[in-house]
Amino acid sequence: MITTATNTNDPVIVIRNMKKSFGDHKVLDGFNLTVNKGENVVVLGKSGSGKSVLIKCLMRLLEADAGEMKIFGISIPGLSNKALDELRSKIGFLFQGSALYDSMTVKENLEFPLRRHLNKLSKEDVGKLVGAALENVGLPDIENKMPSELSGGMKKRVGIARMLIIKPEVLLYDEPTTGLDPITGREINHLMLDVQKKFNTSSIIISHDMNCVRRTANRIVVLIEGKCYAEGTYNELKNSNDTSIKQFFD
Amino acid sequence: MKPKGIKSFLNEAGEISAFTGKFFKEAFLPPYEVNELLRQSFEIGYRSLPLVTLTAFIMGLVITIQSQPSMEAFGAESWLPSVVSVSLVREIVPVISALICAGKIGSGIGAELGSMNVTEQIDAMEVSGTNPFKYLVVTRVVSATLMLPMLILFADTISLYGAFIGVNMKQVISFHLFTNQVFEKLNFTDLLPSITKSFFFGFAIAIIGCYKGYTTRNGTEGVGKAANSAVVISTFAVFIIDLLAAQLAGIFHYL
Ligand SMILES: Nc1ncnc2c1ncn2[C@@H]1O[C@H](COP(=O)(O)OP(=O)(O)O)[C@@H](O)[C@H]1O
Ligand SMILES: [Mg+2]
Predict the structure, then answer these.
(1) What is the pLDDT of residue B2?
(2) Angle at which helices B93-101 and B34-73 cross, to 10°
(3) For position A8, what pLDDT does the model report?
(4) Chain A residues with at least one Cβ partner in B under 8 Å
(5) H or E segment to which residue A116 belongs
(6) Is pLDDT of A250 > 70?
(7) Bridge-based pairing state of the strands A170-174 and A202-207
(8) What is the tens place of the pLDDT at every residue in A209-220?
(9) Domain limits for position B169
(10) Is B87 inside a domain boundary?
(11) pLDDT digits (tens, 9 = 90+) for B147-191
(12) Facing residues of A222 across strands?
């Protein structure tokens, strides 16, 4: 059984000295990150800097080469399949392109993460959970649509609903607003803040959209050349004189 | 072939073998995705049925029409039904149907899994606690392995109808007499190797499609390449299996 960190001062996610290379291409080279309970941490970095690789290593979708990774105090490398699965059921992952299953309806998409609990849930319960999840993201009445019928913003919302349906305590967002128009992007930012408040979740948000960063970040970590280059609040980093940091704010 | 070509060919062959090994490891361990297996069997069987049926009919008809003159020249017209049906059931129908399935099922699986891969849908399954290898690969491979023999058995029957019509174009022969002549020469030892090899056709087509889809890289461009090379490799595999099957059937025939 996984026991969630009860001490509110314990960090929810700890990453120490994480390393990951593909061949001789070093993507992460000693990266450090800590996320505290209830906090939204933005990882800021140029495209191709290894942001997605970072959270995929955290979820063991990729195997990190070295380093310490802990979620709720549980060390991720070397976790057995069963324990890994149990840990993953407490983590929500929003993929960059939403990653909705395009052969399934919205309803089936939302039911999919519940498969592992199906022996415990009745059909009615599942229906209620799906309805509530769609309500949470402001999209009632689209249960029977296919993902191809939805706009980019709606897909993101359904992706968020699918991630929230298992009631995760930690959320990982991979570029939640990239590719959306500014207005839809703003709506998604609001939704992310609502979720944080309503469910008291802790999140890693990966982004290089400064509007998203400004609105959602409690703290920002800048990822440059595989390392944690700088860390601070939005205003601290905005007033920095370092050219590598400044480029994000121009 | 240049050394580099040989190396990458052997590499690929090795990776497909490892993928096949993983299939056998995952296929027998629970949980079993029964609903998805049935859905895939329906998809694979039902969607290939019209094309396979039509081709089998035309093959039966055409092979009969083409063989007719030479049989007539030898004065062996009464042998036409049995000669034609043996070559249809033993070779032509299984191979042509398998090639059609390599095109239809192989490319379909390659493109579907490839696009699921590049849009991170496979990763999404993994994190939501469903083993995507079991859910996507095992179900498709098992369905194709079971459905191809059924499709081919059905296609055999249809091709014999085609042959019956073909024979009737130049001479009048009752259906009763036709079937009598056919089953005088065509028997279980012709059907058994042909059905046996079709299991292997189905397995090879699906595992190659899945392998190509599952290892797709480089975005949407990669999806097209995955579908394309799934068809090329599985077509090649169909001929290799056919060659081996013919050799083995020959050996058993003399035993
Ligand atoms: N599976 C993989 N195999 C090889 N290289 C990869 C793989 N995944 C990512 N990379 C490389 O790692 C680098 C970082 O990728 P990524 O984390 O996706 O960037 P981003 O910060 O834009 O999310 C890129 O140069 C990419 O080419
Ligand atoms: Mg990325």
Answers:
(1) 65
(2) 140
(3) 56
(4) 56, 59, 61, 85, 88-89, 91, 93, 95-97, 99-103, 112-113, 115-116, 162, 166
(5) none
(6) yes
(7) parallel
(8) 999 999 999 999
(9) 34-254
(10) yes
(11) 999 999 999 999 999 999 999 998 888 999 999 999 988 888 889
(12) A44, A230
**CA A36 to CA A14: how far, in whole Å?**
9
Residue A145 identity: K
Domain at A11-246: CATH code: 3.40.50.300
- Residue B218 touches chain A, beta carbons under 8 Å: no
pLDDT digits (tens, 9 = 90+) for B203-239: 999 999 999 999 998 888 999 999 999 999 999 999 9
At residue A129, does pLDDT exceed 70?
yes
Centre of ligand 1 from the C-alpha of residue A27, in Å = 7
pLDDT of residue B254: 67
Amino acid identity at A153: G
Domain boundaries, chain A: 11-246
Q: Which residue has the tokens 């129908």?
A: B93
Quick one: CA torsion of B214, B216, B221, B224, rounded to 10 degrees? -50
Sheet strand arrangement including A66-71: A25-35, A13-22, A66-71, A74-75
The complex's ipTM works out to: 0.91
d(CA B127, CA A61): 8
The count of domains in chain B is: 1
Instruction: Give the residue from B127, B218, B220 with the most A CB atoms within 10 Å of its CB, the best one to mutate.
Output: B127
Position B7 in a domain = no
Output the ligand 1 site: residues, CB below 6 A: A 22, 27, 45, 47-53
Q: Is the pLDDT of residue A1 over 70?
A: no
The number of the ligand nearest the C-alpha atom of A51 reads 1
